[in-house]
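--- STAGE predict ---
source: upstream dedup step, 1 unique chain passed
mode: sequence only
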Amino acid sequence: MNDIHNQRRSFLKTSLGVAAVTVAPGLLLFDVAHGKSEAVSSKVRWGMLIDTTNCADGCHDCVTACNKENGLSGGLAPTDSQWIRKIEIKDVSAGRSFALPMMCQHCEEPPCVDVCPTGASFKRADGIVLVDKHRCIGCRYCMMACPYKARSFVHEPLHNQNPDVPRGKGTVESCTLCVHRIDAGKQPACAEACPNKSILFGDLNDRNSEIAKKLRTVASVQVRSDLGLNPGIHYQGI
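--- STAGE serialize ---
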């Protein structure tokens, strides 16, 4: 009986660990499936600084760009995936309000990864939090664990997909920071599309990068910093 119990434990450990298997230092099987042939370095941590003072109320260019880039419908139904959503925050005491884009915050300590039973939710060495569609069983534990309500569930069959952005019915998805663009040396679609340049993307670990320099000179916050998740998305002006 003990032998059977030990065999089961060994099988589960092996199965749940597959998502973390690397074929080269820092290179996941997920990356190979998406055409990336170079290892991801932990020396880099990608992030954003979003200036809410320049984020115009009523402007949805970042949302439109995200939908187009990732093949999202952009619908308003509860079953429609939305990787970025514009939200309005009101400061009742000060009598002011401001709009900002909310997406996956790409936490250093992502709760979605902690609760995933199959290892489908994972964090790359460079800080990007992703979902491996081949391992996702659609349990939606990660959706419940995310304090930012940043994840969506795909309810319907998908058609005319962007081959660089694999999606699938019955799986969970969220902002990938346009990882396929980053790996090609480009900016995320939302940052590129913002007419007011409110979204600054870059390497948080590089002291000489534009984003790191700006974070040292302006006041910024991380949403729900009290949770100790250390998100990669910073907001200025809130």
